[in-house]
Amino acid sequence: MKFTYYGHSCFTIECNGKSLLFDPFITGNPNAGHIDIQQIKADYIFISHGHGDHIADAVAIALNNGATCVAAAEIAGWLGKQGITKVHAMNHGGPIAFDFGAVRGVNAIHSSSFPDGGYAGNPMGFVVTSQSGNFYYAGDTALTMDMQLIPLWAKLDFAVLPIGGNFTMDSADAIIAAGFIKCTTIVGVHYNTIDIINIDSAKAQADFAAAGLTLLLPALAESITV
């Protein structure tokens, strides 16, 4: 599958002929000024939780593309109030069938509120299964034993995990998470956006390699095959 990184935790995956965009935060990202959100294509937009650094550009990109937004029921309701008519409300559980495959909402240990402080439901991650392949996006989360459930639902081709620490797992915890989910190919996100989540990228990749894992850290606007 084709993975395109837009910075922080925002990325697109081409899955079974559809473009799946996750956690759109480009406007406001100090590293992503060269990325034009008008050029981003999305058939679906998945939102893991309501924080501004995951939802900031959801409305604009959804309107530009006529995309279907998939998120917790509280976020889906909020999007409807912003004029988004194509929404699919979900929560932990599933799987839910879409035209590209199936999606299961899974636990994430974090918080979730809208930029105005309103309640945005429970944070979550997503397990996607399809004919093109299977992957897990953890969303913003601490390391949790619940990740050991993931292999019961899918044999993963790759996983997208936060590695910046402070608000989420750091790279050391992400290595443990990779063992829990039985996945050796990890794409790192949620790092190097602001000082408090800066990491030593070379060390992180070396630590993953020492554990028999591959940590992929694509550049902003770079596309890779996973």
UniProtKB/TrEMBL annotation:
Protein name per UniProt: Metal-dependent hydrolase
Residue ranges constituting the Metallo-beta-lactamase domain according to the UniProt record: 7-190
Annotated GO MF terms: hydrolase activity
Keyword entries, A-Z: Hydrolase
PANTHER family: UPF0173 METAL-DEPENDENT HYDROLASE MJ1163 (PTHR43546:SF3), UPF0173 METAL-DEPENDENT HYDROLASE MJ1163-RELATED (PTHR43546)
